Amino acid sequence: MLRNLTLTLLLILCSLPVQAEGFITRLLNHPVPGGVAVVGLPEQSEAPRASYQGKPVLTIREDGERWIAIVGIDLKTKPGQQQLALANGGQIGFEVRSKRYEEQHITLRNKSQVNPAPAQLARIQRELDAQLAAYAEFSPRQPSNLLLDRPVPGALSSAFGLRRFFNGEERNPHSGLDFAAATGTPIKAPAAGKVILTGDYFFNGNTVFIDHGQGLISMFCHLSHIDVSLGDEVERGGLIGKVGATGRATGPHLHWNISLNGNRVDPAIFIGAFKP
Ligand SMILES: [Zn+2]
């Protein structure tokens, strides 16, 4: 009897915070390095403005009830307390938990893709600058959907955050999610947005950036063909391009990055495929 009562109380206590959270929070709140923190905001009539590390963050009203901030956490963040700054000068703390990422060892025959020739470095830097500028965009539009559609069918091949060693030398961790798909497979917009950058880059090959609104930005890489132009408005499910193996790729696949408030985060979170 007492045991049942204890169990019942425990169940009630455990279910309370969950009841206060909506679907978006339950889906997206994975506060780890390279993850997403959903932070409840004080009640107010107008959309609150909040920032993290000096950059504006995405805010929405969840289920027409409470305001929440959806915050991207950089992969290099150490576990512990972080602060979200409110426009009125207040702060709200949130906890970043730890997560261990796997290692991957890749052998590239083309050594210039491991250690690019000095002549390539200026090009690589120029391309990096353009891409960082695109990630820094913050347009006021609301994302059409936060539970994103998969841009291509097909198995997930390489996870976000993999620590990568090219010919034994550690390089940047994997900043996106890879889908195994054949050359020519159509790539569809996971949410509506505006094309803010396209290019043919040394590492990423044919690439498209789509601004979904409020700092939520997608990048699609290694395309065999780009079907959109700079400034185009793309509907949810609209054709962006086709899968390929351009740039530094060992075979045809789609590499998809998601950026939130300027930080690359795990796209698996947004398609309900996150593995803690
Ligand atoms: Zn990739």
Automatic annotation (TrEMBL):
Keyword Transport part of the UniProt annotation: no
Residues spanning the signal sequence: 1-20
Residue span, Peptidase family M23 N-terminal domain: 29-99
Residues covered by the M23ase beta-sheet core domain: 173-267
Alphabetized UniProt keyword annotations: Signal
Gene3D superfamilies: Glucose Permease (Domain IIA), Peptidoglycan hydrolase domains
UniProt protein name: M23 family metallopeptidase
